[in-house]
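Figure caption, in words: inputs first, then the predicted bound structure.
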Amino acid sequence: MRKSFEVLDVTSLEIPLRSKIILVEAIGRDTLAIESLTSLINRTAMEHSITTGTFIKSQLLPYILNDVEASLTKEVNTYYRLINRSFSINENTLLGRSVINAMHDLTFGNGFYDLTLIGISILLKQSSIRTSRSWCPVCFYEAEELGNPIYEKLIWSLSCVTTCLIHNCYLCTECLHCKTELKYLNTSSRVGYCDNCFRWLGEESTPINSTDINWQHWVQENLDFLLCNQTFINENLDSIRIVEQIGLIFQQLRKSKISKKQLADIMGYNRCTLFEWMRGAHGIALESLLLLSYCVGISVEHLLFSDMSKLVISNVKQAPESVRGGKRDTTIKTTIAARGEFLQKIISRNDYPPPKLGDIAKELGYKSNESLRGFFPVECKIIGERHKEFRAKQSVENNISLRSKVRQEIIECYKEGYYPSKRRLEDRLGQRGLFMNSKFNELRKEVFIEFGIQPR
Ligand SMILES: [Zn+2]
Ligand SMILES: [Zn+2]
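Bound structure (zinc ion present):
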């Protein structure tokens, strides 16, 4: 008897493509509390039980090398460059866009753009972004207490946001324990923890002594509009429109007999700055736009998109003392050209010892070398290398001097009949903790070999 069997379909199954990494959901979408991309990267690494450094090296870097390497100086280590410039990942930069592309490809997820400030990049200047992390310690503390995920908000990366309005407290800008400023991404960074001393950054409460709370309410209410409508702003706002709208504001003020000089005084600016905004010479920074809108009492949304001719501005409000004159964005007081000249002068003066790049950056009002390097890569390289050479030379000289001291003390010990232990040498050289210095240990070993001393 013939038996008939079921016919098997032998065409191979189509297995859908798998993402390389798990997509971690961003927190606070479509609200002012939206998470930043750097925070999501830190959390994604944690979700995969690897450090952020490993995540960057093994996952992000292969993409970023393809995208950015050509524009980066060859000898610069891309990994460390990414860590040092991690503040720019939340911005409209080549690095930021590369990271977004990498995250798209790795997770098959969409929409990492809203975790950055790309949509409002027309309003951002170099000073608008903090180069190190800031956070509300009470937000961290509360999330931990309630068992919610701990994350960093995108608005915390803006220098005009200084307080948490949920907890009425100032944002922290350095570790509560070791006072270190923290990078957005680092080898072992973790949201809620210091990447230097690894301690918890949450705190139960921080007393507030701010009189600027109204100002911060104004800032964050307007940021709510800006961050939640990034696509619309990106498509509808350009520098011409900004200049036109500002020009119309000044016209309306003139109708109410308020001069530019009066407005400039109230805002704490020089009158020329207001003329520059009108001419559209350098654009207007987000902080200044917020301050202008605060002083004339018109929200940023209306200021940028409403028909100004119908608005009546009858009076203007005094700028809060802490932000008068855009204090937050005028740390760097000189123009780019003047800064360039200053650096050229330092290079041609060729002082000895050569100054540290960090000190020069501070003198010019920068918080980090990286921001200065962004504008003057060539000059910074020359200054940095001179100092590096000097340090290397100094280190060689110090080693020679340390060697002769160690040698001398070992000879003295032997003359006196003592064994030249590390402790004894430390005492005689008057330098505690020398045993931790690998150079000292090496030199001691060398002298031991020279005199045929058996280590005990
Ligand atoms: Zn908070
Ligand atoms: Zn710390």
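Residues 19-212 form one domain.
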